[in-house]
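Suppose a classmate hands you a notebook page containing two proteins, each written out with its sequence and a corresponding row of structure tokens. How would you begin to make sense of it? This section walks through that situation. The first entry is reproduced here exactly as it would appear on such a page.
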Amino acid sequence: MHFCFLFALAVLAYPVWAQPAPAQLPPDTVVARMGDITITVGDLAAYSRAGGQQAQRNMTGDPKAFLQQLVLMRLLAREAEQAKLHEQSPYTEQLALNRQMVLSQARLSDHYDKILITAEDQRNHYEKNRDQYRQMRVKVIYLSFTSNPAAIPAGQKVRNETESLELAKNVLAKARAGEDFGKLAGEHSDDMKSKHNNGEFGVIRRTDKIPEEFARAIFALKPGDVTEPLRQPNGYYLFRAEEEATQPFDEVRDEIYSKLKETRQRAWLDELSRKTAVEIEKPEFFERLRANPAASATPNAR
């Protein structure tokens, strides 16, 4: 059973992905055989299209094991049909449900593929949302603290939050008075990477996944400015703006294309969801189901 489930997951993976058959052999070329069960180049191409990259990796990683699983699946499926298992419950219902799932996924994929995003759409989005593509090269000083000093090994010096905040204010005053920020990072920062690299942190984009209060503070800076101490659960941060820029359109064109496609797909799904609002007519059924799932889910439950 575990093998079958693993195989099914590999074959039915999403997204759909296709690749030309190796060596461009004719589709009816037989690549494996067990008795009267054959596997052709066309069969493998179909599995690759339906199964995505995982199916392709399985196929090329260990071809013999993959083919043995494929043949075994076909053999078991044929025996199941001969025994008319597909006409018995719960297999009839499972097959119907699987068919609906595949078709619903097919509809999603088909709609997504047909969404048209023009070069003008991309350019308009960029111009209207230039702030999203701002980026700032910054330096950082990180001053850690602990709220549980008892958990720190004996003899190891740690700061509590009050001490860390006081130090942050002191370092900030020195930085704003003109002391070299990189030198201050080397002396005080608890972030080892920036501590040994003149305080360098790198480039932050407005759309990066950082705390919103950090983004607001950083992008309110002008080059040379330093933020107030920014708190996180284990420490305070001081950021110094070094250089501000906006990513050029050509650099983010593909990102905008994908974003617009996803936005329109989501809008279509939201509209479809609004049209399919469900009214529960028998709430007592679901109350019984919560109380006794095994009994309430049966058709004859009263």
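The notebook's second entry, a different protein, reads as follows.
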Amino acid sequence: MAHTLPNAEHAPAEGKTRRDFIVLTAQAMAAVGAATVAWPFIDSMNPAADTLALSSTELDLAPIAEGQAITIKWRGKPVFIRHRTAEEIKEAQNVDMKELPDPQTDAERVKAGKEQWLVMVGVCTHLGCVPLGNRSGDYKGWFCPCHGSHYDTSGRIRKGPAPSNLVVPPYAFLSDNRIKIG
């Protein structure tokens, strides 16, 4: 029997066959199916609606007298809000940056035009303690008695084991006397 060559019209083009197409299509459908099954599990890791509701808070600043500080809770953490005096602002602005372990100007820590308001997360950056306020410590700011970290009137670390300044959360002024944190 003579061997005949297949008709050129029916020959596979460059090694691609119908089987390759079917395999690729099946793999694509399997990937889509896996993503469809995995999505509810991935989506369940997003924060719940009640948690998102706590992600921001608004506060009226009018009752806070000059020189007074209050503490509120935001996302389960204490937030210090201080209505600084002109003397405290001047002290914070006149610090030599070379003296700071974590150099940051006072202007970087407050909103322009609202320098009298200092808003910070009240958690020591050393081990998560809550520092004492009311012009405490060697720099008349905040003092963490647990390990001896001293913060100045701008919440910058000046002395002690804390590696960085108190964190300034995202906040914005909604009006002259109202802020939104978060």
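A careful reader of the second entry would note: The chain has two domains: 11-43, 51-181.
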